[in-house]
Design brief:
The chain is an alpha+beta fold. Helix content is about 20%, strand content about 30%. The longest helix has 19 residues. It binds ligand LQZAQKY5 and molybdate ion.
Length: about 400
């Protein structure tokens, strides 16, 4: 059995960053920017008023000063003349500040009669002008790689980047196996249960920007499994669930081998997740997850997510492990790294008393995985331990 670290390295070696494609800005949110992009303009392109009021000369601002209003500047409609001594231009938010003016008095501080305005007594020193290029300048770079969030999309739009270079979406086929499984919404027979892992994993991977295909459930026969594998063709990654252990009906490894899988490893010193396997099947990377629901989800987070991040051109790791104090005593750990479902309450880590790998209800209320190294000695409440957010 190899260590979690060795297994992660072997998984990451299965794939490389995917090709770049251009998508319309409207479809770029949630995608990973694959190449640096450069602003094609300056923002704002002119000194702009940040308030509704009057543009005039700063050196003339004093209580009760009188100005003649000689024109108007609105957003999208500049005033073409020059503001001279004793003159003001009516201006609105977003409008270019006219030549000659270097100050905008907000209209609340002004009394207007016809074409004349008089300044009030409480005008501060703020000019209410946004300088040209105050947000960004022509040629400014947005760096790749990065996951594009709504704010990034707005920035790219303002930079007039209509077509965005992003990493191609990894296509992931998810293949659940087992005679006992039916799809959610179907009516299980007495000996059957509802497939959950494929849906949890699909949600996990979709959230990362994968194009996930949940394949029909394969039955516990070599024929059914082979047929399901053919449906995965064209994917970048196939993730199988279940049938990974040593039982008579655990057929994933032998069938994959028959189809030409080059196995990278089988079995990892971790709990849950011992019977994990990985390798290459033709052009696809393959990860065989254990069937127990919590094992599948934990292995998804520990191995599949980093692989997808690598395919997307991102750092494989989202963040290093964090440290926090234990709320309770814990016995020594055994020869497998233990990824315990735990809750972080008032800064303290509470591992759930029930750690069986079938318990989705425990996983669903956990907010962290407490990570115990191989052969970690007994720990007492208050000791610092490592964890990762879920
Ligand atoms: N003699 C041994 N038995 C087992 C060992 C072992 O080392 N020696 N390892 C155990 C460990 S650890 C795990 S984990 C499981 C993994 O088994 P499989 O990957 O072969 O998974 P299955 O047997 O197919 O299923 C296990 C369990 O999970 C349920 N399951 C499967 N797929 C789904 C799904 N898509 N959605 C929901 N639930 C699913 C399945 O019904 C079983 O209850 O093996 C141990 N055995
Ligand atoms: O992967 Mo198994 O969950 O260690 O019980």
């Amino acid at each position: 059995m190899i260590s979690v670290e060795e297994a992660r390295a072997a998984v990451l070696a299965l794939a490389s960053p995917l090709a770049v494609e251009y998508v319309p800005l409207r479809h770029a949110a949630g995608r990973v920017l694959a190449q640096d992009v450069v602003a094609t303009r300056t923002q704002p392109p002119f000194a702009a008023s940040s308030m509704d009021g009057y543009a005039l000369r700063r050196d003339e601002v004093e209580p009760d000063a009188l100005f003649k209003v000689i024109g108007e500047a609105a957003a999208g409609h500049r005033f073409d003349g020059i503001v001279k001594a004793g003159q003001a231009v009516r201006i609105f938010t977003g409008a270019p500040v006219p030549e000659g003016a270097d100050f905008v008095v907000i209209q609340e501080d002004v009394t207007r009669r016809g074409d004349l305005i008089t300044l009030g007594h409480n005008i501060g020193g703020k000019d209410n002008i946004r300088p040209a290029g105050g947000d960004f300048k022509l040629g400014q770079t947005v760096s790749a790689p990065q996951l594009l969030r709504p704010a990034d999309i707005a920035l790219l739009a303002a930079m007039n980047i209509a077509s965005v270079p992003v990493a191609r979406k990894p296509v992931v086929a998810i293949l659940a196996t087992g005679d006992e499984l039916v799809q959610p919404g179907e009516t299980p027979q007495a000996d059957q249960i509802v497939a959950s892992n494929s849906f949890g994993l699909a949600a996990m991977l979709d959230g990362l920007g994968a194009e996930t295909r949940v394949l029909p459930i394969a039955r516990d026969t070599a024929g059914s499994l082979k047929q399901a594998f053919t449906l995965a063709q064209g994917a970048d990654l196939i993730v199988t669930i279940g049938g990974a252990s040593v039982g008579d009906h655990d057929l994933v490894a032998p069938v994959a081998a028959e189809l030409g899988m080059e196995q990278s490893f089988y079995k990892v010193a971790m709990r849950p997740g011992k019977p994990l396997m990985a390798g290459r099947l033709g052009k696809m990377a393959m990860i065989g997850l254990p069937g127990n629901p919590v094992s599948a989800m934990v292995c998804g987070a520990v191995f599949v997510v980093p692989l997808l991040r690598k395919m997307l051109g991102l750092e494989a790791d989202t963040a290093p492990l964090l440290s926090g104090p234990l709320a309770v005593d814990m016995p020594a750990n055994g020869p497998r790294a233990h990824y315990m479902r735990a809750r972080l309450i008032n800064g303290k880590l509470h591992p759930d008393t029930r750690q069986d790998s079938s318990l989705l209800s425990v996983l669903a209320v956990a907010d962290v995985l407490l990570v115990r190294p191989v052969n970690d000695p007994a720990r007492t409440a208050g000791e610092m331990v490592r964890y990762t957010p879920l």
